[in-house]
Amino acid sequence: MNNESYWQKTVNMPSYPSIKWDDCYDIVIVGGGMSGITLAYRLNNSNLKVALIESDTLASKTTGHTTAKVSYLHDVLCIDIYEA
Fold first, then answer.
1. How far is CA 57 from the centre of its chain?
2. Is residue 42 a contact partner of residue 19, using CB atoms and an 8 Å limit?
3. Cβ neighbourhood burial of 77 (10 Å; 0-12, 13-18, 19+)
4. Neighbour-count burial for 6-39, b at 16+ CB within 10 Å, e otherwise
5. Are 50 and 40 in contact (CB under 8 A)?
6. What pTM does this model have?
7. Under a CB-based contact definition with an 8 Å cutoff, are residues 43 and 27 in contact?
């Protein structure tokens, strides 16, 4: 049985070139999940040379098996619980 999420089955992920191990980088991000990809994206327009290293396909591990649901309601619920 192939354990893939719906979006892993329906989205074609782009491929990227391998980094050159003899190059120098200002920042090396290990892990191409949601956090690593977001950090690399945010640093994209900086003057820093950034490398993102992932041993498998980007977003294929824990991030790939989430529902990717983003909601602001969780904070509201936590505030309600805290104030009670």
1. 11
2. no
3. exposed
4. eeeeeeeeeeeeeeeeeeeeeeebebbbeebbee
5. yes
6. 0.65
7. yes
Query: In this predicted model, what pLDDT tens digit does every residue of 8-58 receive, in sequence order?
Result: 778 887 888 888 888 999 999 998 888 898 999 999 999 999 999 988 878
The label of the residue with tokens 């619920």 reads: 77
Q: Measure the CA–CA gap between 77 and 57, rounded to whole angstroms.
A: 35
**Tokens representing residue 23 in the block:** 């190059």
Burial of 46 (0-12, 13-18, 19+ CB in 10 A): exposed
